[in-house]
Amino acid sequence: MSQGIEVLRRSVREFAETEVKPLAKIIDEENIIPEDLLKRAGGMGFFALRVPEEYGGPGLSLTESVVVVEELSRASSALGVISAVSGSTAVYPILTYGSGELKEKYLGILARGGVAAFALTEPCCGTDAAAITTRAVKDGDEYVVTGEKIFITGASYADFFLTAVRTGRPEDRHRGISLLIIDKGPCVEVSKLEMMGYRGSGTSAVRFDECRVPAENLVGEENRGFKYLMMALNEGRIVASATGLGIMEAAFEEALRYSQERTSMGKPIIEHQMVQYMIAEMAMLLEATRLLIYEAARRFEEKDPEVPRYSSMAKLHTAKAGVELVRMAMQILGGIGYSKDSVVERLYRDAKMLEIGDGTNEAQRIVIVKSLLGRVRAA
Length: 379
Ligand SMILES: Cc1cc2nc3c(=O)[nH]c(=O)nc-3n(C[C@H](O)[C@H](O)[C@H](O)COP(=O)(O)OP(=O)(O)OC[C@H]3O[C@@H](n4cnc5c(N)ncnc54)[C@H](O)[C@@H]3O)c2cc1C
Fold this sequence. Notes:
The protein has 12 helices and 10 strands. By secondary structure, it is of the alpha+beta class.
């Protein structure tokens, strides 16, 4: 890693250690990030990672964004995942396909500390995203939007929703989907959900009730939104994987510390070969995950057409390795690891989300195989 990146890592780690970590337990318990912390994180540009400097953002590279999300998630995956979605996944389509006015307005909101949500999944369909039913009907120079989204990260904090809507016929599947930016307002009902992990990330159901949205809030062209979403997920999955990397680091550090302090049969448990086996496995899983995520980010920056495969491989590997590593961390901590007094109990719940959010493990395997068969490439 370059010196600049290590300086960035140190400064985010210092913020995360002093400002975020002490609040992580309460964020999890109360399922909310305190307003003051949210404001400070927004002020530091964490919800605008990829917004270029010309729009007032920090203009971070993908690798730098991975570093920020990894360090935030090491303290609190809730804050880390909001940074990943708002600062990266939601920025990509606006920046790449949005009009000048949309970029000025909405990237500006993020640069000033606002939060964006990425609203694709619906109660009917997650993996089958081409089947979404939220309707946007053109009425003069507005769209009227009605429908329901679910499991939307950061929605309870969001200033606007980058929303996948159906503008074509249902049978047109992915060819009838567009992307609209919908401001929060009276027609948008956000109901926070009680999830198992990533608690505090504001994951919510979002209902749009005849929202009148200016036609100029259309991102790119009508009925081309599905392609924009898939391109955004190429980037988003790499940054989302960084939340898993942060979770894994936190669990590993805790297990390594505990294994040297806890004694059994007259010696620290790290002296027992079976505990050493787990620590060695965890170190390997962590390093392999880190290498694959950073390699995917490097390929993204070099515009490698194989990015969809690397992005999905990074996400799939992080999910599998994350769940396994945190399971071993809990094993090393024994009973205390299974109790609410241990950070590992939260990390265990958080890690499971990696196998579901941003596309399930099965969905990643579909992308990997399609890519191997030459059926999916980054444009
Ligand atoms: C904490 C959290 C945060 C989230 N944040 C967001 C967000 O910000 N924005 C957003 O839009 N969504 C978000 N999601 C939604 C997430 O992306 C979906 O939950 C995920 O894509 C799976 O969709 P589903 O829940 O509808 O499951 P389903 O698609 O119904 O899948 C159920 C099971 O069937 C399998 N399956 C389905 N289709 C196939 C197939 N073709 N081949 C093989 N197996 C298949 C799946 O892998 C899974 O095991 C979030 C989810 C969670 C849990």
